[in-house]
Write a structure and sequence with these properties.
single chain; mainly alpha
Length: 131
């Protein structure tokens, strides 16, 4: 099942299916899709199935696709979106070593990852902002 999901995530990027027409999209749909993929990358990284560099490339792809969205400023933030952007920034800020070996960082990001997957209540202390 993991291999099948991985192929699906990778083919979306290599074939350009994610945000082909990203100029006018619902931010909530974008975040839902990217949050699921981010959670997958994080869990795969913690299981040594993906290198940090691969996850870093994914994050840069997300930022590039986000930049193509033209109507984001007309849409309200959701809690999920705030958590999503917080996790993106946190991963970029702490880097791969801390993400894997610093227990407090890992626990925090794992909690947020569970929320992004729908498995935990919304953490209310997160104030992620759009790039």
């Amino acid at each position: 099942m993991l291999d099948e999901h991985w192929r699906s995530v990778r083919s979306d990027y290599t074939e350009g299916n994610i945000c082909k027409q990203a100029s006018w999209v619902l931010v909530s749909e974008f975040v839902d899709q990217k949050a699921e993929q981010l959670a997958f990358y994080l869990e795969s990284y913690w299981q040594d199935k993906v290198a940090f560099k691969e996850m870093d490339c994914f994050i840069w792809d997300v930022l590039e696709e986000w930049a193509a969205i033209k109507n984001a400023d007309t849409q309200m933030y959701t809690h999920k979106e705030r958590v999503f952007w917080h996790v993106i920034y946190q991963v970029q800020f702490v880097g791969g070593h801390s993400l894997r070996h610093d227990a407090s960082v890992r626990d925090e990001v794992q909690l947020y990852t569970l929320y992004l997957k729908g498995g935990k209540p919304c953490p209310l202390d997160v104030i992620g902002m759009r790039p």
